[in-house]
Amino acid sequence: MNETLLSNRPEEEVARLAKAASEALTDSMVERLSVTGANAMEVVDRLNDEATREAVLHIIDRLTELHRVGAVDTLFDTVMLLHAAKQASTDSIIERLFAFMEHMINNFGHEDIASMVDNARLSMDAAASEASRAKPSGGLFSTLSMLSKPETQRTLQFLLSFGSNMQQRVCDEKRSD
Questions:
Q1: What CA–CA distance (Å, rounded) separates 125 from 127?
Q2: Rounded Cα gap, residues 3 and 96, in angstroms
Q3: Are 72 and 63 in contact (CB under 8 A)?
Q4: What pLDDT band is residue 175 in, cutting at 50, 70 and 90?
Q5: Domain residue spans in the chain?
Q6: For 116-136, what is each residue's pLDDT tens digit?
Q7: Other C-beta atoms lying within 10 Å of the C-beta of residue 87
Q8: pLDDT at 5 over 50
Q9: Beta-carbon contacts of residue 147 (< 8 Å; ≥ 6 apart)
Q10: DSSP notation for 59-70
Q11: What residues have CB less than 8 Å from 156, skipping those under 6 apart?
């Protein structure tokens, strides 16, 4: 007889629990449960599509891999940074960015700039090669002798003129801003 009471008792408890839950539910709660259930079924139904299922499983695999290597925080930090940059950007900032890019493309896309950069690279390569072959003769008098040569004086004059012109342009640019 105790066995019969024990075996019926869990069923009675479940029945009473179900009755209490149904009495406690309001219409809005039932509506929310229905909507939630329908949404859950829609998600499950979409997972039946092979392409969607493969995509979700691939994302889960990649997320697991990111977690394993400790890159999940980095990923989310990057997303937050991009979001903050997007929120902070205004039409004025975007216009200035595009104007800057256009200016850079116009300046560096010019054939004369490309030629100048190539000449500078070739000159630096040649100078490095010559300097590595030259044997230092050492001493102060050797340096004074080198300073008396016309090519040394022209090179120093060029470097001084270049530095002076660069400094003047920077100062003029700062004044115009």
A1: 6
A2: 84
A3: yes
A4: confident
A5: 2-88, 90-132, 143-177
A6: 888 889 998 888 888 888 887
A7: 8
A8: no
A9: 153, 156
A10: HHHHHHHHHHHT
A11: 147
According to the model, what pLDDT value does residue 8 have? Answer: 61
What are the CA-CA distances from residue 165 to residues 5, 170, 171 (Å)? Answer: 104, 9, 10
Q: 3-class SS at 45?
A: helix
What pLDDT score does 1 carry? 43
- The distance from CA 81 to its chain's CA centroid, rounded to whole angstroms, is 8
Task: Return the DSSP state at 90.
Answer: -
Write the CB contacts of 113 (distance below 8 Å, at least 6 apart in sequence): 107
Structure tokens at 141: 């008098």
Cβ within 8 Å of residue 63, ≥6 positions away: 72
Distance CA 105, CA 128 (A): 31
